[in-house]
Amino acid sequence: MPTLGSRRLAPSHALALILAAALAALLAWDALGLDAITTAWVGDDLGFIWQHHWLAAGVLHQGGRAASGLVLLLWLVALRWPFGPWRYTTAADRAVGLWLSLLCLLAMPLIKAHSGVPCPWDLMRFGGMYLDVSHWRGWSWQAQSVGCFPSGHAAAGFAFWPLALMLYRPAPRAARWVAFGVLAAGGLLGATQWVRGAHHLSHVGWTAWLCLALAGSGWWVWCACRARAGRVAHALSQAPKRAPRPSLTTPNQSPRLPAYALQTRRRLAWPLRQYGRALASARLRAPPG
After folding, report:
1. S-S: 128 plus which of 122, 262, 281, 289, CB 3.0-4.6 Å?
2. What residues pair up with 4 in beta bridges, in sequence order?
3. 202: Cβ contacts below 8 Å, ≥ 6 apart
4. CA 179 – CA 166 distance, rounded (Å)
5. Where are the domains of the chain?
């Protein structure tokens, strides 16, 4: 577990520090304008040589989507029959983690549709027809004709941060390996889009940060709710048992009615008793026939 001096950091605090450090690095990258420099390494006024290359456009681009879909399919199977890294987790954790991964996969295209940021291969200085627009500008509530921020393809790798988070407590070593795998997969897919001219490097970094922020916040909420439910269940189990309510029946006795019911019954029976007494008295007075 990460440490700060001699104190051990809670997982939520460690995640907050990681997100804060990554956010500072991304803001510094944007302030220094490093996107223009790094993108110029792989493209020129004639475009990008790797844009239609069979390895980048075919194997890595299309294969990355297929690999992401395969992992989701395996996760669905693991909901019922856990195997591999999923065998260390509970069914509820696997279900919540899957929903968080799907949230990351769906959130990135939704953000892209409203960003209004053109792809590098659409920029004039790389042979396109659009001017460069910072991803801090151009946002609209309506869908834009161009949208290239953040990197949706890199999300096919970074969307699986929840798998590392759910393994952190039951299997820390497996969680580290999964985290490295998620980082490597997302980085490879993001680098593929960078050399093809589909994204700046900052687009890939923001995708990694947004996916980790969504997954981390969602997992923190789930853990907080689970811990609260556990405390409530423990408190209920430790609460003193209530004394059983007295039964209306006792052995060898007929059911006892409440006092108000007995009083009502006596009031209703009084006219009948009077009529019975009068009838018996009349019979005694009558001469024998």
Report:
1. 122
2. 7
3. 26, 29, 30, 34, 35, 135
4. 11
5. 9-231
